[in-house]
Amino acid sequence: VFVYSGMIWERRGIWQMLNLIKMLKENNFDIKFNLIGSFASENLKQSVLNFISENNLNEIVKIHGRKPIDETLKIINQSHVGLALLENIENYRESLSSKIFDYMSQGLPYLVSDFPIYDEYAVEANTGITVNYDDINEIFDKTVSLISNPEQMKTLGKNGFYKTRSEWNWESQENRLFELYDKILSKV
Prior knowledge:
It contains nine helices and six strands. By secondary structure, the chain is of the alpha/beta class. It has a six-stranded parallel β-sheet, with helices on both faces.
């Protein structure tokens, strides 16, 4: 079971995700896809619904719409792999996607765009798999490799869960934030 949580938009990989799901179905993988969030436009929503219908994905893709965080985390917790496929634009290259932390907090491995900012979080910490957003074949191959290796999925999920409990959480960053506030306020 795959999951995506966030604004549903072309630049946030909706077509990569849907094509990945289509390819997995065509290769006889037994999959589901939870899509959580609001659509960027009604036109996009209609295009997505048409794609789902035209490719016989109605029984595979579940569109949940926007949900409160507790319901979102419950759906994530019932999934197996998180998706964070972001287009290669400056804003996404230079900032961390909060959805990967939601996935990790629930013990899910995830696929994320291969931007340098994710080297520490996905690659070095061994919590997720990086993929080239523009190469659907690479995304497919790395996904198949991941879901075909339950031990790797378990390891990535455990590592992410541990990291979000021990280091990558608001409590661990509180002192740094207060120090920043003190530094800014001292200059006022």
